[in-house]
Amino acid sequence: MYPEPGATHFGLDVEEVTEGRGAFVIGWRDERAIACGALRRLDLPQTGELKRMFVIPEERGRGVGRHLLNALEAEARRLGITRLMLETGTRQLAAIALYHHAGFVTIPPYGEYVSSAATSVCMAKELGA
User: Fold this and answer.
1) How far apart are CA 84 and CA 27, in angstroms?
2) Is 37:43 a contact under the CB 8 Å cutoff?
3) For 116-120, which contacts have Cβ atoms below 8 Å and span 24 or more sequence positions?
4) Can you count the helices (H) and strands (E) in the chain?
5) pTM above 0.85, yes or no
6) Exposed (0-12), middle (13-18) or buried (19+): which is 114, by Cβ within 10 Å?
7) Taking the CB of residue 24, how many other CB atoms lie within 10 A of it?
């Protein structure tokens, strides 16, 4: 969806989602993986970032994304994270709507996303203590 140069260079290393540092969550229906998402700590106090949220096309519109987001927020709270940030693409309208509905607000591009501001939407949510 994003053929622009530099629009898809964002990484996630396995050590960023190891126990105590983050999490990688998989949503299942029966014995089939239907969704995934990750949480990693940022180098900011009590701040985490959501990464790699994905729901397979045939499961979209059924609330799977919201359940996944709830699980990642719960994991963030367990890790002592009180602020979540994320980046999604400007063409991901359903994702943007999901995040807004869940209480995320649009923020200026941060970190590695500053260089891709034309195709990135950055958001944040305060989780509280």
Assistant:
1) 20
2) no
3) 116/4, 116/6, 116/7, 116/9, 118/4, 118/90, 119/2, 119/4, 119/7, 119/89, 119/90, 119/91, 120/87, 120/88, 120/89, 120/90
4) 2, 6
5) yes
6) exposed
7) 18
Confidence at residue 3, expressed as pLDDT on a 0 to 100 scale: 62
> Cα–Cα distance between 21 and 111 in angstroms, integer?
18
What domains are defined for the chain? 18-126 (3.40.630.30)
Mean pLDDT for back-to-back runs of 10 residues, the chain (129 residues): 59 80 94 96 90 93 95 95 94 94 96 86 90
